[in-house]
Design brief:
Length: 109
């Protein structure tokens, strides 16, 4: 089993996104938070070795929501560090995919 650690940015992301969904429909924010935690507990505590998308960073989709959990794996220590939670239309660092493509020379991100 892997230990999960939320970085400050990921904690802020979870709070902001949960609050936003709650303003859209009462209970939806709680549902988003629950699905996010469920995804982490079900997949990342047991086998976090999903494909890397940028350097050592990995990501996994949150079920029923258009968001991805961005994380790093510290294999020796058996730690998964949750770095951010991003909408699928954002780049993993809060920019749009088009901005990331420009930043990385126009290639596929």
């Amino acid at each position: 089993m892997y230990t999960i650690r939320f970085e400050d940015e990921a904690k802020q992301d979870l709070r902001k996104i949960t609050d936003w969904y709650e303003t859209q429909k009462p209970g939806l924010g709680d549902d988003f938070a629950a699905k996010t935690i469920e995804t982490i507990e079900r997949y990342l505590t047991k086998n976090p070795e999903y494909a890397k998308f940028y350097k050592e960073y990995r990501r996994i989709a949150v079920k029923r929501f258009p968001h991805r959990i961005v994380y790093l794996v510290e294999e020796q220590e058996k730690i998964v560090r949750i770095m951010a939670i991003r909408h699928e239309k954002q780049g993993e660092w809060g920019t749009t995919n088009a901005e990331l493509k420009m930043e990385h020379g126009g290639g596929r991100v």
